[in-house]
Design goal:
alpha/beta; 7-stranded parallel sheet; 5-stranded mixed sheet; 26 strands; 32% helix
Length: 488
């Protein structure tokens, strides 16, 4: 049927599980048709909103379209759309920010409510009724299992040769029936190549021919290259002293230009025989696989620029042997991440002098995108890095502050902080030791004296384990809110 006919089957107030993970694998036509229906209902004076659950962020055709018509009552677990963000930060939409590894299990536990409809993009429907997944797996397995009704969007733009790249594990369970996940290496296959669903639940099939949100990445700038250099030098040192093998351990890299710069740096590094165990495979990791520097990569989604996608499609037989796409409950699974000894690299908005990390909020109250998978990897990795340029907004904001205005990752989960200024290895240090290293190594020179002054005075007042001047701890954010700059 048409997208409009399928959208007409979604009732107001429904919880709708949609496919999609970081700009890949999301339904293209049904969300737009649903947005048109909602807009018409609102114009007629009828209330109509739904709650949308996905794997992670999607694209303007889904998040943007539904947010624009005030069609979402609740969104989870992650988003990156500017219209969606505006609705969240003006209180017009609720947003549940969640660790990506928690989403599927919380749905199974019943913590999120009842899932009424699943809208899932697939590459093909097989003769046996199973589905070939797309460039993203995300939470699709869980949505298909839990939803009362299922709508499929078959995207003919996707190559059939994706068949065989996926590993859909059906062995998860809820307590007390849980069993160990038998995954011992990044390239292990422990599941099935296809998604499956009770065919009686399928109420509509819509055909489309539309691309994913393939965004070009900016070339690494000077700061990104400096950050990458600090990390690669540090990894080489860890190999030299025997804390890492020469081929390193499986790499996880967050989304963005800094992450791609680090991977680009690894392309020129002496490391060979690398592996990847991450949530999103981007251009940089694809380059490593193509060059033979990385033997294999495991992810939940592939999110590429136009040029990288062209290469991927042209050489898909090569990549299918070296890339595995999994449900995000496996790609981000804390026990698997810890057992494999993953090296995690994720971006942040700010860090404070004691190593607490803010990944999500601007000035403590405004949501940016969400925590995503950074917490899954930060707490459970063998080694983790949090990276950011030392300043933002042309120097008006310091990304190293006395106290974070919002904390997503506590000092207990933070091992290494990196800016273009340098790298702070915080392992085994006390709070006061961490503070001095972060100020010396990571703070921008324009803000370093202000941070040092705050830290020195804090040590003269109050408790000495984690010294703070409570009346001043958030004064930098307060000043920025009032004047537009953190600079005194």
């Amino acid at each position: 049927m048409s997208a409009s006919e399928a959208a007409a089957l979604i009732e107001p107030g429904s919880n709708v599980g949609m496919s999609g993970f970081t700009g890949a694998g999301y339904p293209k036509s049904i969300p737009q048709a649903l947005a048109q229906r909602i807009e018409q209902e609102h114009a007629a004076g009828h209330p109509f909103r739904v709650s949308i659950w996905t794997g992670a962020s999607t694209a303007p055709e889904l998040d943007g379209a539904l947010a624009k018509v005030d069609g979402m009552a609740m969104r989870l677990p992650f988003q990156s759309d500017p219209i969606c963000r505006e609705k969240i930060n003006t209180g017009k939409m609720h947003f549940t920010d969640m660790h990506l590894s928690h989403v599927a299990q919380h749905a199974w536990f019943g913590f999120l409510g009842h899932l009424n409809v699943a809208v899932i993009e697939v590459t093909a429907i097989n003769a046996d009724g199973s589905f070939v997944p797309t460039m993203a797996v995300g939470n699709n397995k869980t949505w298909l299992d839990l939803a009362d009704k299922v709508i499929l969007e078959v995207n003919h733009r996707l190559p059939f040769e994706l068949d065989g790249m996926h590993d859909i594990y059906y062995g998860t369970a809820i307590p007390p029936q849980r069993k160990p996940i038998p995954l011992y290496g990044p390239h292990d296959r422990i599941g099935e190549p296809h998604l499956k669903c009770d065919i009686d639940k399928i109420i509509a099939i819509v055909e489309t021919d539309s691309p994913d949100r393939n965004s070009a990445f900016a070339a690494p700038d000077a700061n990104s290259e400096l950050i990458a250099g600090h990390i690669i030098d540090f990894l080489a040192h860890e190999v030299k002293v025997g804390r890492l093998p020469k081929e390193l351990l499986p790499l996880q890299s967050g989304v963005g230009n800094v992450a791609n710069a680090v991977l680009a740096g690894l392309l020129k590094s002496p490391f060979d025989g690398l592996t990847g165990y991450t949530e999103v495979l981007q251009d940089g990791m694809l380059d490593l696989v193509r060059a033979g520097k990385m033997k294999s990569a495991s992810a939940s989604a592939i999110s590429l620029s136009h040029a990288a996608l062209d290469d991927f499609v042209k050489n898909i037989d090569f990549y299918r042997e070296r890339i595995v796409l999994r449900p995000q409950e496996i790609s981000n699974h804390p026990e698997v991440v810890r057992r494999l000894g993953v090296i995690g690299m994720n971006s942040m908005i700010e860090a404070d002098i004691y190593g607490n990390i803010n990944s999500t909020h601007i000035l403590g109250t405004g949501m940016m995108n969400g925590i995503g998978g950074s917490g899954d990897f930060a707490r459970n990795s063998y080694l983790n890095f949090f990276v950011t340029p030392s300043i933002a907004k042309g120097g008006k904001i310091s990304c190293i502050v006395p106290m974070c205005a919002h904390v997503d990752h506590t000092e207990h989960d933070t091992q290494v902080i990196v800016t273009e200024q340098g790298l702070a290895d915080l392992r085994g240090l006390s709070p006061r030791q961490r503070a001095q290293v972060i100020i010396d190594k990571c703070a921008h020179p324009d803000y370093r004296p202000m941070l040092q002054d705050y830290f020195d005075r804090a040590q003269q007042s109050g408790g000495q384990h984690t010294p703070h001047i409570l009346g001043e701890a958030l004064s930098w954010h307060d000043r920025c809110q009032k004047t537009g700059s953190m600079m005194a």
